[in-house]
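Let's inspect one such protein example.
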Amino acid sequence: MCLVLAEQDFKTRFPQIQLDTNALYSEDQRLITSAGTGASLDCCLYIVRKFFGVKIANKFARLMVVPPHREGGQAQFIEHPIARSTSEAQINTLIDFLRENIAKPHSIDELATVVGMSRRTFTRRFQKATGMTVVEWLVNERLQRSRELLELTALSIEQIAERVGFQTATSFRLHFKQKHAVSPTAWRRTFGANTLIEMPFPLNH
């Protein structure tokens, strides 16, 4: 069962429970729950640290070769991929165009003109084809591209923001934190390659 279906199933079965899809683990009135297998180790270390102290928790972490402490509210880093194509040819052509020009600003009216539709028809058909508004799709695609650059290059946050189409580094950081509950720098620390490289051009898809 895919992640989204599992989340929907959980909410249907337990409507009175608030599901936090970002948290690694959560404690509420002495009830502690965790996410996947890796998060369960974080949860166990949290319990050890709470009752036996940091020194003992760190000792166990070294034995298990895992980070000694990750906050429960830290993002789970679950990737929600964007579909490479849709069932509508005109929208597919536009998506290819946007991916090749992701660093440029785009207006709804401009894109509607590209596909030869009225603004209203275009926004309706784009959302039906992709499941997202144009703005949501652009933000998600830009964040996906930014994750690749964070992981594979040594480009600065400012350079990455420019290359993926965010107007400012501040805007990039806000969108990234909202999506992943951590900063771009924290993402790079977790997933960055051991040897980062300078990229002369943006990564293309």
Notes: The CA atoms of residues 20 and 26 lie 8 Å apart. The longest helix spans residues 134-152.
